Amino acid sequence: MSRVVASFAELEAEFNAYVGSIGYATMVTVDSRNRPRTRILIPVWENVDGQPRGWLATYRTPVKAAHLARNPHTSFSYWKPGNNSVAVEAVAEWVDDVDVKSHVWRLYRNTSPRGAGYDLGAFWRSPSDPELHVLRLEPWRIQVIRGADLRSRIWQSLPLSSDQARNGDLPQDRAVADDS
């Protein structure tokens, strides 16, 4: 069973621990024929005014750019042996501001959460490197699953529309069956 929590704070420590220990995530986008495409990347995360926000330092490949231009919704999946896992559903947006890139550079250098991140200098010269691109990730749903007993907790950013409810997503005050 999964339990929906009212605030990100209720699962933030577990989210940070799992993401920090796993590091790598599978990112999923969708192509123009609605087929999924995956790649392994390392996003970093922070808490902004009580809400999770992710950042992805990446190359702006034609495939990734085309997928996100058509549909900015993406999914990140973290998993490691023992079955601790995190699933993040987010909306991605390219950000070209050098001040934001500098902020993201620091998050990667300092690892955020602890353990997640790396030295971006291994791939780019500086935050102003024209090859460095940044995606802001605004999560709308995060699920954290503890492998020891498969306890699952879900945070969602907004109350759901009637369409979302019809698709199996329930309001935050209801316990839901594990849909992972």
Query: Please, how many helices?
Result: 4
Percent helix, as a range, is: 10-25%
Q: Report Rg.
A: 16 Å
- Give the DSSP E fraction (strand runs of 2 or more residues): 35-45%
**How are helices and strands ordered from N to C?**
EHEEEEHEEHEEHE
List segments where confidence is low: pLDDT < 50 over at least 5 consecutive residues. 164-180
Count every beta strand, where a strand is a DSSP E run of 2 or more residues.
10
Mean pLDDT: 90
N-to-C span: 10 Å
Classify the secondary structure makeup into a structural class.
alpha+beta
Shape: globular
Largest sheet: 10 strands, mixed
Can you give a write-up of this model?
There is one protein chain. With 180 residues, the protein is an alpha+beta fold. The chain contains four helices and ten strands. Strands 1, 2, 3, 4, 5, 6, 7, 8, 9 and 10 form a ten-stranded mixed sheet that branches. Strand 8 (133-146) and strand 9 form a beta hairpin. The model is unreliable at 164-180 (pLDDT under 50).
